[in-house]
Amino acid sequence: MTAPAPTPEPADSSAQPQAVLVTGGNRGIGLAIARAFAEDGHDVVVTHRSGEPPEGLRGVRCEVTDSESVDAAFTEAEQLLGRPVQVLVANAGITRDGLLMRMSDEDFEAVVDTNLAGAFRCARRAVKGMIRARAGRIILVSSVVGLLGSAGQTNYAASKAGLVGLARSITRELGGRGITANVVAPGFVRTEMTDELSEDLQKTYLSQIPAGRFATPEEVARVVRFLAGPEAAYISGAVIPVDGGLGMGH
Ligand SMILES: NC(=O)c1ccc[n+]([C@@H]2O[C@H](COP(=O)([O-])OP(=O)(O)OC[C@H]3O[C@@H](n4cnc5c(N)ncnc54)[C@H](OP(=O)(O)O)[C@@H]3O)[C@@H](O)[C@H]2O)c1
C-alpha cells in the first residue's frame, strides 16, 4: 500500500518578523513577553495605561475594559507597526481576591471585565486584520487557577477559565482562516502580583509546586513566543501550562 501524499505545507509567513501587540506589556510577564519578541527581531508594540512605555519598546495607551480605547490602541499600534497586528498577546489582568460570601459585585465584575471581556475585546479587534491576511496568532494569558480553582479567587479563576472557552471558540470559528488561538496558563510567577502575597502564603504555594520554585517571567515569555512561531502552526485551542507541575491533571 502506498502512503498518502503528504499535505502541502501552507505558506507560513510567521517565519518573517511579526507585528506583535502585547496588552499590559509595560511590566511583569507582559514586559518579559514583549522583550522576548523584540529580541527575536519582531516588531512589537505594548499597551500601557499610564506613564511612559518601557525603555526600548513602543507603546500605546489602552484600557481593555473600554472597547473604544481598544479600537483606538489597535489603530495606533497598526500605524506604528506599518501593518495590521499579526500576533495578539492578551496579557493584561488583575486580581481582587476575597471569599465568595464577601465578594462584592464590583470586585467580581471588575476582574471578569478586565481579564475575560478585555481579552475578548482585543481578540475581536485583532481578527479584523487577521481574517483579511488569512493568518494570525492569538495567545491568551490565563492562569493555573483557571482550571485548578483557588479559594478566595472565584472571580479571578472564573475569568481565567473563561479564556479557555474563548480560545477554543475562536479556534472553531477561525481555524480555517489560518488563525490559531491558544491559552498559556502560568503557575506562580515572580512579579509584583505575587510579591504582594504574604510570606506564609508564598511558602504554602511553594510546598505545592513540584518544581519547588516560582517561574520567572522569561519562562512564560518563551512559551508565548513559541506559540507565535512557525513551529506552533498546528497548535490551536490548547492550554499550555507553565506551572512547574502545579496544575497537573487539569
Ligand atoms: N504573576 C503571576 O504569578 C501570574 C500567574 C498566572 C497568571 N498571571 C497572569 O499574567 C498576566 C500578567 O500578570 P503580571 O503578574 O505580570 O501582572 P502585573 O505585573 O500586575 O501587570 C498587569 C498588567 O496588566 C495591565 N492591566 C491591568 N488592568 C488593565 C486594564 N483594565 N487595561 C489595560 N491594562 C491593564 C497593567 O497595566 P498598569 O501597569 O497600567 O496597571 C499591567 O501592565 C495577568 O493576566 C495575570 O493574571 C500571572
From TrEMBL:
Keyword Oxidoreductase attributed: yes
Keyword RNA-binding found: no
Superkingdom per UniProt: Bacteria
One Pfam family of this chain: adh_short_C2
Coiled coil: none
EC number of the protein: 1.1.1.100
InterPro entries linked: KR_dom (IPR057326), NAD(P)-bd_dom_sf (IPR036291), SDR (IPR050259), SDR_fam (IPR002347)
Molecular function GO labels: 3-oxoacyl-[acyl-carrier-protein] reductase (NADPH) activity
Keywords recorded for this protein, A-Z: Oxidoreductase
Ketoreductase domain location: 18-192
Family: Belongs to the short-chain dehydrogenases/reductases (SDR) family.
UniProt name for this protein: 3-oxoacyl-ACP reductase FabG
Organism field: Ornithinimicrobium kibberense
